[in-house]
Design goal:
globular; about 350 residues
């Protein structure tokens, strides 16, 4: 039976109401989703992940030392080895075998630390080579997830670089700040870098007092470490700053770093950091992200070849990236292969 005009009009009205209601419901759902997303992001940025933090491991306060000079290096090395040995004993008594083993390794007679702090995640500054007589010095600044427990991989890179550099050189592995976790709110922001930058600047001043004004110092900054170097760059007394596997520096360009150092950048072909959005935005009063990609033409760094390696491969022995980093440190900049 055919529907009457009144029935047809009522049906159309009902269908329009249904569609309008559906659109309204869709808008509500989208608003709820946006609100939930904002809450999640805000929580990730603002709320500390204290529940996931491991219990604090007891350790002695760092050794109290006078400013180090070339003539007092051995005294500093001995004092810091003794501190590491005490930290190992305290960690073992606490039942943390992993930390105790890491501390014990650092107390070995062959190790040379300018500073050591076994508290919390731990900090350490280790020397490879004869620092007192070096005329080329590289300072390595690590990225996220570097602690006393994971220090071995950072140390391996420093050793590989020193082996590649040759005589009258030294490498300093500078774990002088609390690095963020790779999966953590802090890795998205410059907070840890802003805390670390004054420490790095102070360390470079102290290092200059040991090696003298004629030594060439280069800063090699990996991953989040490049954010630290970006924050510390202004006025820093170094010849070169190399940014490797960098998510950005927090600056829009190399010129915005306000440094007299030559700024280099490289990224391996298989480095996942290429897929990180190179931007920054203000979110709930916190700056998230690190700005311009350092290997992009817009940044203005000297971009060099890093081969096919991934995010953790820049110091692999025999690699293109390690060879180029060594050339930068040695001052053989005309020999650096460009990307």
């Amino acid at each position: 039976m055919a529907m009457g005009q009144e029935g047809l009009g009522a049906a159309r009205a009902a269908e329009a109401a249904r569609r309008g209601s559906g659109r309204g419901a869709g808008r509500v759902v989208r608003r709820v989703r946006r609100a939930l997303l904002a809450a999640l992001v805000m929580g990730a940025v603002v709320v500390p992940v204290s529940a996931a933090a491991r219990p604090r491991i007891p350790a002695p306060a760092p050794a109290v030392l006078a400013p180090v000079t070339a003539s007092t290096l051995d005294t500093a090395y001995a004092a810091n080895r003794a501190n590491a040995a005490e930290a190992a004993r305290m960690a073992a008594d606490h039942g943390d075998r992993t930390r105790a083993a890491a501390d014990r390794a650092m107390a070995a007679p062959s190790r040379r630390f300018l500073s050591f702090d076994g508290r919390g995640a731990g900090q350490a500054v280790e020397v490879f080579g004869d620092l007192a007589h070096a005329d080329r010095v590289a300072v390595l600044v690590p990225g996220s997830d570097t602690s006393l427990e994971t220090y071995g991989r950072f140390r391996a890179g420093a050793l590989a670089l020193h082996d590649r550099l040759g005589p009258r050189t030294a490498v300093v592995a500078w774990l002088g700040y609390e690095t963020p976790g790779t999966v953590s709110p802090t890795v998205l922001t410059t907070g840890r870098a802003e805390d670390a930058a004054p420490r790095l600047k102070g360390f470079i001043r102290e290092l200059r007092g040991v090696v003298g004004q004629s030594a060439r110092i280069s800063l090699l900054c990996h991953s989040y470490g490049s954010v630290v170097c970006g924050r510390a760059a202004q006025g820093l007394d170094v010849a070169d700053i190399a940014l490797i596997g960098s998510p950005g520096t927090g600056a829009d360009s190399a010129a915005a770093l306000h440094t007299s150092a030559r700024v280099w950048a490289a990224r391996g072909a298989d480095d996942w950091v290429a897929h990180v959005p190179h931007t920054s935005t203000d979110l709930f009063g916190t700056t998230v992200g690190f700005g311009t990609d350092p290997v992009s033409p817009a940044f203005g760094a000297h971009v060099f070849a890093a081969g096919d390696g991934g995010h953790s491969d820049y110091f692999t022995p025999g690699s293109v990236s390690l060879d180029n980093l060594a050339r930068i440190v040695l001052g053989d900049t005309s020999e650096v292969t460009r990307a």
